[in-house]
Amino acid sequence: MNFFQIISEIEKVDPEVYDRLDSRRSVFKNMSGLGQKLAAAAVPLAVGAIFNKVYAQTPMGASVNDVLNFALKLEYLESYFYNSRTTVTGLSAQNSAALALIATDEANHVSFLRKVLAGNAIPVPATTGVFDYTAKGAFPTALTSAATYLALAQSFEDTGVRAYKGAAPLVMSNKTVLTAALNIHSVEARHASHIRAMRRAGVASTAPSQGVPVSPYTSAPKSWVSGTDGGGAVPGVTDAIYGAGNNTNAVSGITYESEATTTQGGVNLATNTTISGFPTSAFSEAFDEGLDVGTVAKIANLFSVSGTYFS
Amino acid sequence: MSTKLIPSSQPQLSDVDKPLYAPIKRRSFFMYAGATAGATALVLAGCSKSDSSPGTVSVGSGDAGVLNYAYALEQLEAGFYTSLRTGTYYTGLQAGSAEKLILDDLYYHEVIHRDFFKTAITAAMATPIKALTPDFSKINFNDRTSVLGTAKAFEDLGVAAYNGAGQYITSPTYLYIAGKIVSVEARHAAIIRDLVSENTFVGNDIITLTSGSNSSVATNNSDANSSLERSMSPSEVIAIANTFLADGSKLDVSGIK
Predict the structure, then answer these.
(1) What residues in B contact A208, CB-CB < 8 Å?
(2) Do A266 and B28 touch, CB atoms closer than 8 A?
(3) Which residue of A124, A143, A158, B112 has the fewest C-beta atoms within 10 A of its own C-beta?
(4) Angle between helices A175-201 and A43-55 (to 10 degrees)
């Protein structure tokens, strides 16, 4: 790809192109260095991100970079949380090993997004004073009690899945960014599935987590979201993670439904398909729902010291 | 096994001319989709159903092609979880046991996905592909290792397929719906992998950890230590899926581009 020729072509049509690029010509001075630092496959993505910043505003008015930076903030919330797992007591070795695997993934997601965003990335948040995992005292044992810790882990993972899903249509103008977001999205869903299994089996379990049946359901989540999961891991605080979103700025055709919905594509699957004899809960479980950025920010801000980090 | 993936009580290919659902339901789907241009494209794409290679089933092109591609994969998964219910591995599971409950839920979810796509494709005025005939002769439904190993392969394949197909979807509505399904498939994949071996819900065979690429499949942005799950292109996916489909039901995805 001859990048400078592309710019030249655009310049013929749009003489202001250099001025539209927010860091002006310095962006291009830095391009050669940038290319050396990034893997070959990531270069088109970086270039695409620059163009998106200039020309492609998402329907909600944010640039693709804004969406990626929001994702990066959520990844920091998760990454720092899993890095704090060493203060938690009562976890079996097997469960500690699982958390170590997840911690690695979240740290990798942080560094991947930073590399994609390059100079447009948000500053690295301080490890203390930015996030408050007790949610201003709602979870006093957030980083000490294994049960509380896993309840929060499930909440963060399920929120992450809904956030990436809800944001996917906002970045679809850039296929590379979209695919990368999807590639993170499914990893978060795998984490959520496993954390839910760990909670089912118990924090100190040494038996395989999947070997424990869901019973009673109220105290043992399935590995997928069923209805609104009774308000989630901590009903009264985590309800919004499974509720409906705000559709004010949603992309045309998209509504952020509650996780309990059984209607997909305008058809209530529980009543209007040829399927009979299935439990109603299965129709909600078969589809995860997305959330809008605003609602995700509201949920995440519960864990922000300032209360506005995600706004 | 010659059983159709979709029971004969459900509408078959010969029924496509008959309305499956009342017009009001089709209309409600369109109101939800809210994309006139996309709808037009779907109608046109849906017409290109004629097989491009003899004996294969073309999924078509455009968004309808991607929906039919997903429908094909969901037929395969639903057929698998339906078939396993007659094997002695499943029938021998204790009532109320975790493994039985998990396999029951996966059966429900995949059958729902399959029927959803048939409904959605029809409602979008496109033509669903026929009910595919599977070839599960390589699977021993009486053996736990064989069943769970195949389930793992199908679920991981499904996630990689959706991840790789997102970029071919032009309608935000359909992209969003694909996103709603892929995370459930990922939840399935994680639990099946853990049933095979605890704490394998993620791993370097599906997620870029220590190496920049995994298995034989190139991933997008597959830098080492990025923890991105792999994507697979439609042609990479059907190279595997077709080994589980009978002659005459093998897929052609060349229209998706």
Answers:
(1) 194-195, 198
(2) yes
(3) A124
(4) 100
Distance in Å, alpha carbon of B54 to nearest chain A alpha carbon? 32
* Total CB pairs under 8 A between chain A and B: 269
The C-alpha torsion from B117 through B119 and B120 to B126, rounded to 10°, is 100
Nearest CB to A109 within list B116, B194, B227: B227
Residue type for position B62? G
Compute the distance between CA of residue B252 and CA of residue B247 in angstroms, rounded to an integer.
12
Alpha-carbon gap, residue A4 to A11, rounded angstroms: 10
Q: Which of A78, A105, A108, A186 to mutate to test the interface with B (most CBs of B within 10 A)?
A: A186
Reading the block at residue B159, the tokens are: 């996630």
Smallest CA–CA distance, residue A19 to chain B, in Å, is 30
| Helix %, strand %, coil % of chain A (to 5) | 55, 5, 40
CA atoms of A47 and A6, how far apart (whole Å): 11
Quickly count: other Cβ atoms within 10 Å of residue A94's Cβ.
Answer: 17
Q: Residue A249, by phi and psi: left (phi above 0), alpha (psi -120 to 50) or beta?
A: alpha
Residue ranges covered by each domain of chain B: 24-198+237-252
**Omega before A216 cis (within 30°)?**
yes
- Domain B24-198+237-252 in this protein, CATH class: mainly alpha
Q: Which pLDDT score is estimated for A80?
A: 98
Q: Please state, in angstroms and rounded to a whole number, the distance separating the CA atoms of residues A171 and A173.
A: 5
Residue listed under structure tokens 């029938």: B91
CA atoms within 13 A on the CB side of B220: 23
Contact A277/A305 with Cβ under 8 angstroms?
no
- Chain B residues in contact with A273 by the CB 8 A cut-off are 112, 115-116, 119
- For A18-72, the pLDDT digits (tens) are 444 433 333 333 333 333 333 333 444 444 444 444 334 454 456 899 999 999 9
What CA–CA distance (Å, rounded) separates B153 from A31? Answer: 41
> Strand B250-252 relative to strand B56-58: parallel, antiparallel, unpaired?
parallel
A13's CB contacts (< 8 A; 6+ apart) are none
Q: Contact B198/A94, CB-based, under 8 Å?
A: yes
Tell me the whole-structure pTM to 2 decimals: 0.82
**Would you list the domain boundaries of chain A?**
38-301
ipTM of the complex: 0.83
H-assigned helices in chain A = 3-13, 17-20, 26-29, 31-37, 43-55, 64-83, 93-117, 146-167, 175-201, 269-272, 280-285, 293-301
pLDDT at residue A147 greater than cutoff 90: yes
Max CA distance (Å), chain A: 67
Spell out which residues of chain B touch residue A159, defining contact as CB-CB under 8 Å.
none
